[in-house]
Every structure is written in C-alpha cells, then in structure tokens.
C-alpha cells in the first residue's frame, strides 16, 4: 500500500510539474521541446510495459509510430477525413496488424524476437518509402491542421495542453495496469514464463495484448505528432527512431513508468544540448549512454531509488 501511495504521489507531482512548466519556460522553442518530450514519453511508457514489465524485446516500434502518422496524413489529405476519425482508423489498423503479427513473433525469444520486430519495422518503413503516391515517398508529405468540432488546435500553448493531458492519462493508465491482476501477470511472465504458465497465466494472451496496446499507443502518438509538426518523413518510422525509443526505456529504467518519462526527457533534450560539439555530438551521446549502462545498469530512476533506499537502511 505504501508503494502504491508513492506511485500516486508521483502522478500528482507530474501533474504539478506539467502545470507549472509552461509558466516558467522562457519562449516557444522550449515549449516545443516540452511537447516533443511528452509525446515521446507516451510511446516510451507503453513500450516499457512490453519490454520492462513483460520482458518482450521490440526494436521496431517506430514502424507503428510511423503508421499512425501516415494514416492521419494520408486520410486527411487524400480523402478529406476528419483528423480524429483518421487518428482512430490509424490506431485500429495498427492494432489489427500488431495482433496479426503478435502470435508468431512473440513465440520467439531473446535476439530472435528482437530481429523479428526489427524486420517488421523495416518492412513498414520500406512500404512508406515506396508508396509515394500516398505518402510522398522519401520527400515526405504535409499534414493538415488538427480540427475538432470546428476548432483548430494551433500554437505551442494549445498543443502543450493536449500533450500534457495525454501524458498524464497514459501515466495514470500504466500505473493502474501495473497494480492490477493483468500487471501482475505481465510481471510473472517476465520473471519466468514457465512458472507463470504453471500458475495458470495464459502467457500468449497477455503478451499479445500488451504488444497490441503498445503498438496502438505508438500509433496515436504518431498521429498527434504528425498534426503538431505539420510535416512528416519516413525517418520517423525508421530503424534509428526505434533504437531511440528503446534507449529511452533502458536509460530511464526498465519496469519504471516514471523512468520512461525521465528517459524520454533526457534523450529528447540531449541532441539539442550536444549540437555545440560540432560533429562530436554523437560521440558524446554514446559516452553518456555507456556511462549510464556501466554505473546504473538498471536505468536512472531504479538505480537512484535503490541507492536512496540503501542509505535509509544504513541510517536506521
């Protein structure tokens, strides 16, 4: 109960930070970075449910992100669909694809599972590149503004509210899922799939469901990002974006919802800060990641929390 209470205190703290943040950020550039952090964090939280809590590796989730973005772009541009309907259609199509692929893919384990998800992501990226009549091909395409009930969401302030509310909602859903029987089943699968089966857990069903959930969330975030940015390219569905998402999970902390947010924040801000190194930013970025993995192998948030608990025990 105490741990549950701490989690909900964390949610209240996150809500407070999100409420205060736009008041202290100096200009629109920083608000834009905050929006991108929130959208990345939404995807990373869902991916952490799959990787950190269930123990299933996926390095192709940028493909689902790209599907959502391009579904919204294509349906609103070529067929004049309302943006919300396009977003829902993209999420439904992505969920269906993830469900169809989940059963054969999730039978694999370890590096073979990673390669299968990588292959799925690469296939999605290739399709987006080749279907230029619908996607604009390698040049990308423009995305219409997001309108809802005759109102257009425009400007950093409005988009910040949307991103902050969605991040809070995703965090609340993830925390409640983890504390539910479903969450305990997912963690049992991570601990030992054989033991979970012996205990009566339908491991295939739960793995498929969390895979589909993480894919749908990635699709929705991709759609929102597409309308916010206003222009998309196939790179958002590419391999390197998938690696970025996985790195955010690992650096922030596996099996840590708030670690996902910290990881997304750090790895969204770092490229901006490292631009001053003029060509060496990738090297510095790699050194930071290596240092994190060497000295904090569980990720930032779990490692810091463990050290704080150890100090308290030592003081007592």
TrEMBL record:
Keywords: Cell membrane, Membrane, Transmembrane, Transmembrane helix. Its main location: membrane. GO terms for cellular component: plasma membrane. It is a multi-pass membrane protein. GO terms for molecular function: branched-chain amino acid transmembrane transporter activity. The chain crosses the membrane at residues 36-55, 85-102, 158-178, 210-233, 245-270, 282-301. It is found in: Cell membrane. This is Branched-chain amino acid ABC transporter permease. The keyword S-adenosyl-L-methionine does not apply. It comes from the Bacteria. Pfam families: BPD_transp_2.
């Amino acid at each position: 109960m105490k741990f549950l209470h701490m989690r909900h205190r964390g949610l209240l703290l996150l809500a407070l930070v999100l409420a205060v943040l736009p008041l202290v950020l100096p200009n629109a550039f920083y608000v834009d970075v905050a929006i991108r952090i929130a959208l990345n964090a939404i995807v990373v939280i869902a991916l952490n449910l799959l990787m950190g809590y269930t123990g299933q590796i996926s390095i192709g989730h940028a493909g689902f992100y790209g599907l959502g973005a391009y579904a919204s772009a294509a349906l609103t541009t070529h067929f004049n669909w309302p943006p919300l309907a396009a977003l829902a259609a993209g999420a439904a199509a992505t969920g269906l694809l993830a469900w169809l692929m989940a059963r054969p893919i999730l039978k694999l384990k370890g590096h073979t599972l990673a390669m299968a998800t990588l292959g799925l992501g690469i296939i999605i990226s290739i399709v987006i590149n080749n279907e230029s009549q619908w996607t604009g091909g390698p040049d990308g395409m423009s995305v219409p503004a997001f309108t809802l009930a005759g109102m257009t969401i425009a400007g950093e302030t409005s988009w910040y509210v949307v991103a902050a509310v969605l991040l809070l909602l995703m965090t609340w859903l993830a925390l409640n899922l983890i504390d539910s029987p479903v969450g305990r089943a997912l963690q049992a699968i991570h601990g030992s799939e054989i033991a979970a089966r012996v205990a009566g857990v339908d491991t295939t069903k739960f793995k498929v469901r969390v895979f589909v959930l993480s894919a749908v969330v990635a699709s929705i975030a991709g759609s929102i990002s597409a309308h916010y940015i206003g222009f998309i390219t196939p790179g958002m569905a590419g391999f390197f974006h998938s690696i970025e998402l996985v790195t955010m999970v690992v650096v922030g902390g596996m099996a840590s919802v708030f670690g996902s947010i910290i990881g997304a924040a750090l790895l969204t801000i770092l490229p901006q800060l490292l631009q001053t190194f003029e060509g060496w930013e990738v090297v510095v970025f790699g050194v930071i990641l290596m240092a994190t993995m060497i000295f904090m192998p569980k990720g930032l948030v779990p490692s810091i929390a463990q050290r704080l608990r150890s100090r308290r025990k030592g003081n007592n």
